[in-house]
Amino acid sequence: MALKIWLDGKLVDEADAKVSVFDHGLLYGDGVFEGIRVYDGRVFELEAHLRRLYQSAKVIRLEVAMDKDQLVSAIKQTVEANGIVNGYIRLVVTRGAGTLGLNPFICKNSCLIIIADKIQLYPEELYETGMRIVSATTVRNHPLAIPPQVKSLNYLNNIIAKIEALDNNVPEAIMYNHEGYVAEATGDNVFIVRDGVIYTPPVEAGALEGITRNIVIRLAREQNLEVVEKNLTRCDLYICDEFFLTGTAAEVIGIVEIDGRTVGDGRPGPITKRLREKFFEYAHGDRR
Ligand code: PMP
User: Fold this and answer.
1) Which of 106, 117, 211, 264 gives 20 to 30 Å between its CA and that of 253?
2) Among 93, 117, 141, which residue terminates a domain?
3) How far, in Å, is the centroid of ligand 1 from the Cα of 16?
4) Do both 155 and 80 map to the same domain?
5) Known catalytic residue: 76?
């Protein structure tokens, strides 16, 4: 069924949802976005996603055409118009149409797009068996370049790393920062477990501050598990007991092999499974 897309203030048919070839989102990846889940008809962690969107926009000096309340209403209308009960929302703000020059201030009106659709997830069995991944040679953006905390439309850095993963017949790759510490995966945050303690790289290591990451840290602490934000090396990943990734689409997924080294006993570990269950309960429960 054709979708209804929110484009610049109204819902339009998918076939009519078109943007200018002069939009700097297209010409330069100039813009920001969010990926948000809908669980049981409720938009998941909308406040946190909107906060991150407006913060990303602020860093790149992009004016979002709507305030928060208007945006919440537009998102809800789009979800309803498409009958999405369990699905995924893609919220995109581009710089808008300008000229062929880089100057963003020539683009008079930023462009706001909301797509609400079903979601293509990793196969369920991958959560049971765990995922194999590799280290990417592509270094995560330097913090003095476009900061990794900004969820910008320019994902080329991550895409190049993703190609490295796919060339190795695995779905994900770990990206390291310019100092060699673990930053994140191409579209997910990184966690390991060693001797019962959970470790994750600090955001300053070059990660997007994942909404799922923050929830998982909170849920783990509620379970009286110790969570430490600390720089991690490639070696830390090779010798950990458990390894998992978190993200809006992936939720919590166990890693069982990295660069040919088996993690733990080669299956998702007990803490990974527990946090996956806790996350599921949280996403589908009444606490949101
Ligand atoms: N890192 C990157 C680079 C991402 O694109 C994402 C989102 N897919 C994440 C981490 C996870 O963030 P979130 O939990 O907010 O989806």
Assistant:
1) 117
2) 117
3) 29
4) no
5) no
* Domain range enclosing 23: 4-117
Q: Catalytic one among 4, 151, 162, 278?
A: 151
> Where a domain ends, among 117, 132, 166?
117
Pocket of ligand 1 (CB under 6 A): 35, 158, 184, 187-189, 208, 210-213, 246-248
Integer angstrom CA distances of residue 247 from 124, 146, 186, 187, 188: 16, 21, 10, 7, 5
Domain count, the chain: 2
pLDDT greater than 60 at residue 117:
yes
The closest residue, in CA terms, to atom 9 on ligand 1 is: 188
Question: Does any domain span residue 14?
Answer: yes
Q: What is the pLDDT of residues 128-181, one digit of tens each?
A: 999 999 999 999 999 899 999 999 999 999 999 999 999 999 999 999 999 999
pTM of the model: 0.97
- Specify whether 142 is located in the same domain as 256: yes
- Examine residue 288 and state whether it is found in any structural domain, yes or no: no
Q: How confident is the model at residue 287 (pLDDT cuts 50, 70, 90)?
A: low
